[in-house]
Write a structure and sequence with these properties.
This protein is an alpha+beta fold and 176 residues long. The protein has a domain at 107-174. The protein contains four helices and six strands, in the order ααααββββββ. A six-stranded antiparallel barrel has the order 1-2-3-6-5-4. The relative contact order is 0.09.
Length: 176
């Protein structure tokens, strides 16, 4: 019985493996309009190659203008990662790589822009990136105010540590 299940699984996966082999050399995460620009390099005739580049560049520009494709430089990717730090996002290779980020952030150094407390007396603070963080432990916090420097780093079980320039680290989670 087990052999029949393996054979059935192999039969289901065969078309995907064949398709993968046919696309070998192509980045599955790369947009077709960008692949078309790169493909123009293979054309030997300079006139035909220029015509290919003109068509591909026009299609690329139209895709960007229509918000069907977003092109970001490394600095924009870094800033976007920074603004999303603390959110649990799926690992889909959004910022490079295939299925995971090449430069996963482990911590950010920022400053506090607002401080308040919830009904249980736990601190809620905002950061320069526009994030809101909520204390999830019961450690006392003193002296945290607008402009206070804070380092937020990855902890365990989906939480983070916030270490202010004065005081002990507290465990936090990102609210928004």
């Amino acid at each position: 019985m087990k052999h029949l299940q393996l054979i059935a699984l192999a039969a289901l996966l065969a078309p995907m493996v064949a398709a993968s082999a046919a696309d070998k050399g192509k980045d599955p995460g790369q947009a077709k309009v960008l692949q078309d620009v790169v493909a123009c390099r293979a054309i030997a005739d300079s006139t035909a190659r220029l015509a290919c580049y003109d068509r591909a560049a026009t299609a690329l520009d139209q895709a960007v203008t229509a918000d069907q494709l977003v092109v970001m430089d490394k600095e924009a990717v870094r800033e976007t990662r920074r603004s999303l730090f603390g959110f649990s996002l799926p690992r889909i290779g959004l910022f490079g790589g295939s299925g995971g980020d090449k430069e996963e952030m482990k911590q950010i150094d920022t400053s506090v822009t607002s401080v308040s407390h919830d009904i249980d007396g736990r601190m809620v603070f905002g950061t320069a990136e526009g994030a809101t963080w909520h204390q999830i432990d019961d450690r006392p916090t003193f002296g945290v105010k607008h402009g206070t420097k804070v380092t937020i780093s990855v902890a365990s079980l989906g939480s983070y540590f916030a270490k202010f320039e004065r005081g002990v680290p507290i465990r936090v989670r990102r609210d928004r």
